[in-house]
Amino acid sequence: ADAAAGKAKSGVCAACHGVDGNSMVPMYPKLAGQHPAYLEAALKAYRDGQRTGGNAAIMAPMAKTLSDADIADLAAYFNSQAHK
Amino acid sequence: ADAAAGKAKSGVCAACHGVDGNSMVPMYPKLAGQHPAYLEAALKAYRDGQRTGGNAAIMAPMAKTLSDADIADLAAYFNSQAHK
User: Fold this and answer.
1) Is B60 on the interface with A (CB under 8 A)?
2) Are A53 and B38 in contact (CB < 8 Å)?
3) Tens of pLDDT along B34-71?
4) Sign of torsion, CA B1 B31 A53 A12?
5) Interface contact flag, A35 B45, Cβ < 8 Å
6) CATH assignment of the domain containing A24
7) Which candidate, B7, B13, B75, places its Cα nearest to that of B44?
């Protein structure tokens, strides 16, 4: 996976999760330093309709536009950010 | 919420997420330092069947046994742990 490519695609994520994945909004999870495998699984669950509660209404449409490669790159990017 | 009470109830969580919430298993998310509001929303989504993919098969039965107070305490506990 390519964290730099992930950063380039992370603009829309930054609105809620913060540019470096350290969300300042309690309802939105911090992504910085999270395991990439988990981030990928979560994004795919949103994309594939396996998460319907909570933030799914926001996340599902976002995730639908992402390819597996996009998801791997985004996961690599946010994992590479320091958790604050 | 009571982080100490959360710690007392976190034994079963520690198996996958680590005693301090810094999971060493890529598939299981790190909980340490995560926003409590997000942790609560995620646990309730598992409890209420709104998450079915990925780790839901493990998490749903765990979450079903938890009251709202348990969930708030667990979220407070893991939030209080330093992310590593």
Assistant:
1) no
2) no
3) 999 999 999 999 999 999 988 899 999 999 999 999 99
4) positive
5) no
6) 1.10.760.10
7) B75
* Burial (CB count <10 Å: 0-12, 13-18, 19+), residue A42: buried
Mean pLDDT of chain A: 95
Q: Can you read off the two tokens belonging to residue B50? A: 């709104």
Smallest CA–CA distance, residue A71 to chain B, in Å, is 15
Total domain count, chain A = 1
Residue A26 near chain B (CB below 8 Å) = yes
**Residues A17, B74: Cα–Cα separation, whole Å:** 22
Parent domain of A32: 3-80
Q: How far is the CA of A26 from the CAs of A23, A44, B61, in angstroms?
A: 7, 22, 26
What pLDDT shows up at residue B29? 97
Put simply, the answer to whether B45 touches A27 (Cβ < 8 Å) is no
Q: How far off is chain A from B80, nearest CA to CA, in Å? A: 13
Degrees (nearest 5) of the Cα angle B53, B70, B38?
Answer: 50
- Where do we find the tokens 């699984």? A41
**Region A37-59: what's the mean pLDDT?**
93
CA of B59 vs chain A CAs: smallest distance (Å): 13
B79 and B35 in contact (C-beta within 8 Å)?
A: yes
